[in-house]
Automatic annotation (TrEMBL):
Principal location class: endoplasmic reticulum
Domain Peptidase M28 residues, every copy: 272-451
Organism, as annotated: Galleria mellonella
A Pfam family: Peptidase_M28
Name this protein carries in UniProt: Carboxypeptidase Q
Domain PA: from-to ranges: 149-244
Keyword Signal: yes
Length: 474
């Protein structure tokens, strides 16, 4: 072995030794915080865990979550905010819940945006004629009937926009072409792009679809117009077309596009749906599991967020079928109108603000229901120690990772931001943003066995948190 390898080996050993020390120190701290009795109590849930995992993964519930999700998705398809399909899908999920003998189901009405996509097309006219795949962004205004024909200016980030001369932007179509690093980092180009381009005099704005991978698939999503700026039409184009336009303009050639878009906007009444499996000792105390039942108008909303809704639907159903009634209440919430600005979650938080101290823990699954890996937890250290100890019970299905996060889920952040502890489903979702908000969000993304693992994990974790002798600290 030469000296280089010996050094490398030493460095690796030191790194892994230090990591091991950090982990050991954390678990020492947790051991102190929890105490032997609580650790023993949490460990004693292994029998319940086994019962739930067996029933869902190998027993009578095997394949049920996938089947129910498929029936739902096939029947209603896309469920955009304000649509009849969404309201019908809510009626349907109430029916299948009651059919399981869960009669504690209520809905709460609220006003939601109803934006409807009309005809949309973008044609490149120069340097050659080519049709582009396009999806208007939610709340985009229409173009004039004759469309908008203008030159494109490609912008890689907001700093470049702010530094450009007004004459370079005025009268043009701005194309934001930020390379995808993460959803969080690139989302502002979709949500604020039109407003910022309009402030510089652009006549329309386009965004490179937010995603790492594409088969000519545009991704839609929400955007909002700022105050006092002209509302310009705004849409997403594919990674392929964004790169094509970038290459052509980088060669000094002009790209001219013709954009035609139409849409309409009004408001409708929708509903949050709340299913309770009442606790046996502290029914006022809530452990919430949730997902959002609305989707974008493209695709089928199977992944976003049908999967999250159906593992959250499964939790009280499975517990009811197994006759497992925890100490606290398990509440399933199917949020409405998430995609158009977390409208259902805000309405719930406001309506229940006086009783939000009763929320012991809140969970949401909205980043895919691929194989579960653990939980992404927004809570203080003491709470994290309890959750980490519970997650140890899920080593057999590789779902014992605790990711520390300041965001537990888009809807529930409305509640966790007030200091209530919560978590999202941490899952093997590297492909999530391939399909998100596209025509590709169909049942083919979902896997029967992974949904079983997710439903079993979600149910067992919620049960244990709802049943242990201590509240989750906040
Ligand atoms: C673009 O789409 C239009 C309308 O669908 C069609 O008539 C036209 O032939 C297409 N153009 C090209 C170059 O494919
Ligand atoms: C928009 O204009 C109104 C009226 O002039 C003003 O009160 C408000 O502060 C402006 N909003 C923004 C974001 O500039
Ligand atoms: C857990 O991970 C191990 C190693 O990657 C793998 O062999 C095993 O099949 C996984 N178990 C489950 C239930 O996915
Ligand atoms: Zn979602």
């Amino acid at each position: 072995m030469n000296i280089y390898y010996i050094c490398l080996l030493k460095i690796l050993l030191i790194i892994s030794f230090n990591q091991a020390k950090v982990i050991e120190k954390q678990s020492d701290t947790c051991r102190e915080i929890l105490g032997d009795d609580l650790i023993r109590e949490i460990g004693s849930y292994e029998n319940v865990r086994d019962e739930i995992l067996r029933y869902v993964i190998e027993g009578d519930f095997k394949g049920k979550t996938y089947d129910e999700l498929a029936k739902f998705v096939d029947k209603f398809g896309a469920r955009p905010s304000g649509s009849e399909a969404l309201e019908n899908s809510i009626d349907y999920i109430i029916d299948i819940t009651r059919a399981e003998g869960l009669n504690d189901v209520i809905t709460e009405e609220l006003e939601v945006p109803h934006w409807t996509r009309g005809e949309e097309s973008i044609t490149m006219l120069q340097p050659r004629v080519k049709n582009l795949s396009v999806l208007g962004l939610g709340t985009s205004v229409s173009t004039p009937p004759e469309g908008i024909t203008a030159e494109v200016v490609v912008i890689s980030d907001f700093a470049e926009l702010e530094n450009s001369q007004e004459e370079d932007i005025k009268g043009k179509i701005v194309l934001y072409n930020p390379m995808y690093t993460s959803y969080g980092a690139t989302t502002p180009y979709r949500t604020q792009g039109a407003t910022r381009a309009a402030a510089k005099g652009a006549v329309a704005s386009l965004v490179r679809s937010l995603g790492p991978f594409s088969i000519n698939s545009p991704h839609t999503g929400a955007q909002t117009y700022g105050e006092n700026v002209t509302q310009i039409p705004t849409a997403a184009i594919t990674l392929e077309d964004a790169d094509l336009i970038r290459r052509i303009t980088a060669r000094g050639e002009k790209v001219i596009l013709k954009i035609e878009m139409s849409s309409s906007y009004d408001t409708k009444i929708s509903r949050n749906t709340i299913v309770d499996l009442k606790g046996r000792e502290n029914p006022e105390s809530l452990v919430i599991v949730s997902g959002h039942i609305d989707s974008w108008d493209v695709g089928q909303g199977a992944m976003d967020d049908g999967g999250g809704v159906f593992i959250s639907w499964a939790a009280p159903v499975i517990l009811k079928r197994l006759n497992l009634q925890p100490r606290r209440t398990i509440r399933s919430i199917f949020w409405t109108a998430e995609e158009v600005g977390l409208v259902g979650a805000y309405a719930y938080e406001e309506k229940h603000r006086d009783e939000n101290h009763n929320i012991n823990f809140i969970m949401e699954s909205d980043v895919g229901t691929f194989a579960p890996l653990g939980l992404s937890v927004a809570a203080n250290q003491e709470a994290r120690c309890i959750i980490a100890e519970i997650l140890k019970l899920f080593e057999s299905i590789n779902a014992s990772t605790l990711v520390e996060s300041n965001s537990a889920g888009p809807d529930i952040d409305v509640i966790t931001n007030t200091g209530i502890p919560g978590a999202g489903l941490h899952n093997d979702n590297a492909r999530y943003f391939w399909f998100h908000h596209t025509e590709g969000d169909t049942m083919n993304v979902e896997d029967e066995h992974e949904l079983d693992l997710g439903a079993a994990f979600w149910t067992a974790v919620a049960y244990i948190i709802a049943d242990i002798s201590v509240d989750i600290p906040r």
